[in-house]
Amino acid sequence: MQLNNQILKNLPVYEVKTSLKEAIAFFEETTFSHVAVVEGGQFLGLLSENDHACFEADKSIETFRYDLESFFVKLETSWLDVLEKFARNEANLLPILDDSNKVLGYYDLNDIVSVFIGTPFFTEPGGILVVSKGIKDYSFSEIAQIVESNNNKLLGAFITESLNDIVQVTLKVNAANLNEIIQTFRRYNYTIDFGNDDDQFLEDLKQRSDYLEKYLNV
Fold first, then answer.
1. What is the four-CA torsion angle of 112, 155, 172, 118, rounded to 10 degrees?
2. What is the DSSP letter of 69?
């Protein structure tokens, strides 16, 4: 997926000697989390909106030289790594550097998310399934094999949570009815965290039946 047409070149890049007054105006007039700072044209770091309350208009950005954050991407960075960089740094504006560490422009989180939402994972018809398994026991090849063994195609899959040695994987398949796939995942000892409505109905019905049986046996 190419992101080159998502580069914003109309946002400021400040020299470190610039007055903080300009940065104050930038953050007050926009909702962006960061803005790039350079020294002699070379990327120095990012001024954060979180420090906005500490800015003194009569001082320069130099005052915050040692508080600048340092994260960026390159033109060749994949869209998935770009999204990760946004998430890890809790940012909604991300500078893009060339090989000589000059700022080419920015990525806006909203634009990148829009590109992501435009992928077949979201646009193609199908069903969403969320499964989990031990981190040492799961594999994407096995997940794909399970889906394809039920004569369906895997449209996409990614890890959405990793906690206490359990990995949660969200996947989309080109099938609306997921019951057969769900049963196969269970046979492979995957936990179903989210499936289609029919399967959830069966689970709820079973829980109610178990509760009623226990109640009658009291």
1. 30
2. B
Mean pLDDT (the chain, rounded): 87
Global pTM reads 0.68
Q: How far is CA 75 from the centre of its chain?
A: 19
Quote the radius of gyration of the chain (alpha carbons, Å).
Answer: 24
**Token digits of residue 98:** 């060339």
How far is residue 2's CA from residue 13's CA, in Å, rounded to a whole number? 24
Distance, CA of 84 to CA of 81 (rounded, Å): 5
Q: Are 125 and 147 in contact (CB under 8 A)?
A: no
d(CA 199, CA 195): 6
Is residue 45 predicted with pLDDT exceeding 60? Answer: yes
Write the DSSP symbol of residue 154: E
Sign of CA dihedral 107, 111, 113, 116: negative
